Amino acid sequence: MPKFVDDDNATIDQHKVGHFGFTAVSLDDLESSGYTLATIACDRSGSTQGFQKPMEEALKASVAALLRHPNSESMMLRVLTFDTECAELHGFIPLADIEPMRYNGSLEPRGMTALFDACINGAEAASEYGKQLIQDRFNANGILIVITDGMNNSGRFFQNRDLPQVAKAFQDTQRNECLESFATILIGVNLQDSHVKTILEDFHRQAGFSTDMIALMDAQPDTIAKIGAFISSSVSSTSTALGTGAPSQSLTW
Amino acid sequence: MRGGSHFVMGHSHSVCEDYAASTDTFAALSDGCSVVKDEEGNRIDPHTDIGARLLVCAAMKLQKTDPGGLTAKIVVHGANDARRLLNLPEETLSATLLMLTDMKGYILAEICGDGAVAARVAGTSQWCISTVLYQSRPFYPRYLLSDHGVGDFQQSTGGLFTVNTTNPDGSECTQASSVRQRAWSTFQYETLRYDLVVAMSDGAFSFTQDGRSVTFDQTLAGRLLDFRRMKGDFMVRHLRGVLKELAQDGIVSQDDLSMIALYED
Q: How far is B11 from B253, CA to CA, in rounded Å?
């Protein structure tokens, strides 16, 4: 796993909570009055072959764009990748500590699609870390963006009957004591197979994502680049709402 | 050493008349008077929110040129120069002034007017808390602008105030005094013994619950002084968070509340 934090003074804590655990910069090292916790869960199953490089570029572009945002010091990013299993590429760390070039090669396609695991992992970590932040009087809100080209068929929660667990994880995170607000966004990529599209739409509805599903019919470089721009505008919008207690402005593709 | 400051408008106020600022070695707050009368006794609007800012800005500026030697008298003369430039009435400076200075070995707290200062015993949650309360309206540094200001204040109000101190061991002492004896109160806290010194405006004495006054006792002080993570914007997080938690229990500050702190980490 690439090292994402250059600052030797920053301490990364391991949190063994929920089904998967997570890492995050120590609360002792945080200076801002509040943080937007952004999580990107990116599919790298075998079927993403061919657009993994544009997706890595989109990730890098979104981080670079967010670093230019006036609220960048109040943003933390966590990136998950999922194939047969869900893995944490890096935990919640301030944007300034991320070297975007280190996303190179991080989305090499392999295996199956642990979509439910990624959603539950993303929600549980945001919930727990958000709760800790608010307990220590930081403002905190969150956004989870899940990008996939397929349907759930792997991981700890690999069965369809596990879907309520995703809905529960989302609901738990939207409780006030965890985060001021928590937006969940599902982006379906390369949905040329109508069967896959229907299943993803059904998953989107039953899991209770907070915004409409974004269904992209192709995975052309231009389309993937738009995902990067969407990530940065969504995280920016969430950050602008930080401290107001309100959700971010409705996000449109 | 690390400094912090923040101010929040009171529940009954439409304009925040408190102001606060800090560096890592110095912090100042000022609380502008809400009701000011002219010489004929008519209520006037002297914009004491501006006066509070002038006092704090003067303190921040003058502290750089005279670290350790700053007094309320020096500060108010600096603020008065700015007031004159703005062509504002002298009543604009009807505001208290509380300052904390890192004196290398101890923290000096100065209170001109009313308010509270608290020092935490290092490595514990025990505090030494002192309050300065006037029998009538508080003494403002602006009375130091003229030779007869202190006397006039004493004549019109009695000029009496008390300093109540609760020590870390729970013992208490009360000291009555007069502005004729000392126009401002000073407190010294050795940094070997105390790691955090906090000063707050008299908004700390203005909390109400269900319309009834909440006494500034050990319980309320304990909640107001429940500091957590101490990096970066710690005072912003602290004051905002504490007021939110108190509000959840129906306890609200009617007056503006400002806090400043110096912390030895």
A: 6
Residues of the domain holding B225 = 2-263
Is the CATH number of domain A31-240 3.40.50.2300?
no
Residues with Cβ within 8 Å of B14's Cβ and at least 6 positions away in sequence, in order, are none
Per-residue pLDDT tens over the stretch A125-169: 999 999 999 999 999 999 999 999 989 999 999 999 999 999 999
For chains A and B, count residue pairs whose Cβ atoms are closer than 8 Å.
Answer: 30
- Can you give the CATH number for the domain in which B234 is found? 3.60.40.10
B241 touches chain A (CB under 8 A): yes
Q: Element (H or E) spanning B199, and its range?
A: strand B194-200
Comparing C-alpha atoms, which of A183, A177, A72, A77 is closest to residue A132?
A: A177
In chain B, whose CA is at the least distance from the CA of A138? B237
What is chain A's mean pLDDT, rounded?
Answer: 92
The reported pLDDT for the residue numbered A176 is 62
pLDDT at residue A3 above 60?
A: no
Kindly state whether B24 is in contact with chain A, defined as any CB-CB distance less than 8 angstroms: no
Closest-CA residue to A211 (of A180, A188, A245) = A188
Query: In this structure, what DSSP letter does residue A148 have?
Result: E
A27·B229 Cβ contact <8 A: yes
Instruction: With CA atoms as reference, report the closest residue to A145 among A23, A226, A39.
Output: A39
State the pLDDT at residue A107.
96
Nearest to B228 among A31, A32, A136 (CB): A136
Does any CB of chain A come closer than 8 Å to the CB of residue B232? yes
Which residues of A fall within a CB distance of 8 Å from B232? 30-33
The structure's pTM equals 0.86
Q: How many domains does chain B have?
A: 1
pLDDT score of B80 more than 70 = yes
At A9 the pLDDT is 58
Rounded CA-CA distance B187/A72 in Å is 40
Distance (Å, whole) CA A175 – CA A123: 12
Q: Which helix (DSSP H) or strand (DSSP E) does residue A14 occupy?
A: strand A12-15
Is the pLDDT higher at B45 or at B2?
Answer: B2
Tokens found for residue B258: 């400002």
- Mutation site, A30, A32, A33, interface B, largest B CB count within 10 A: A33
Torsions phi, psi of B193, nearest 5? -100, -40
B37 forms bridges with which residues in the sheet? B43
Lowest mean pLDDT among B40-49, B88-97, B202-211, B233-242: B40-49
